Amino acid sequence: MRFASRTAEHVALFRALETRRRDRLFADDHAIRFLSARYRWLVRAAAVPPVGQGIARLIDRRYPGGPRTSAVARTRLIDDLLAEARPEQVLLLGAGYDSRAHRVPGMPPTYEVDHPATQRVKRQRIADRPHVHYVPVDLNTESLAVALDGLPARRTAVIWEGVTNYLTAQAVDATFRDLTMIVASGSTIIFTYVDRAALGDDTAWHRVVEKAGEPWTFGLHPADVPGYLAERGLDLKGDLSAKEAAARYHRDEPAADFYRIAWAVVR
């Protein structure tokens, strides 16, 4: 992949639109910085409530399956899980245009791991902060353990949001195994994944990511997740679909039951 992630821009768009809502689940004032000119115009127009509601409905009709609400619900849930973890440091894997290190008050030292192309664009659009450390890595081809050699062995919150479904099974396996060696016992790993049963579905959502050159390549059956993690030194603590996460925050809008957010603790 030579260019910055297109799917990362789409998620930034959803977060920017959410920020303009009066009933927003979170505020991400940095998200708009990662958007093209046409998307920025759309976000500014969404500041007028009727226009914003119309834009949301248009997106949901054009892309059935609920990618917009799934993205914002998972973001809010992960924010809450991060707060509950109370980590000494944070590791963002495949950080994309995630701005938690900039928007969440009191963030501890944060290490952002991502493909060099996406990371390069991100650093051009958002100011560096002393507590944020950038680690360029392609998880499909490079070792996380090697890239993070020397990382302090502290209680860590690992956030792996919107990434596993774009990797190979070997890369996901290697990353989980590396994480259990890198971070301290008791650390929390929060990750998203796609239900494996949905990988072969021919939907608008699938077609959009394939057109962007970022097709889904990996998934897990939810029933297999506890055992899969246990084999890699992790104990599953929770696993919700994006639809369930949306319901938790009283969002009665389309969200996916095949897109999931799970969290586990390192033994």
From TrEMBL:
Q: What keywords would UniProt list here? A: Methyltransferase, S-adenosyl-L-methionine, Transferase
Main EC class of this protein? transferase
Q: Does the keyword Protein biosynthesis apply?
A: no
InterPro entries, per database record:
Ppm1/Ppm2/Tcmp (IPR007213), SAM-dependent_MTases_sf (IPR029063), SAM_mthyl_Trfase_ML2640-like (IPR011610)
EC nos: 2.1.1.-
Q: Which GO terms describe its biological process?
A: methylation
Q: What's this protein's function?
A: Exhibits S-adenosyl-L-methionine-dependent methyltransferase activity.
What protein name applies here?
A: S-adenosyl-L-methionine-dependent methyltransferase
Source organism: Amycolatopsis vastitatis
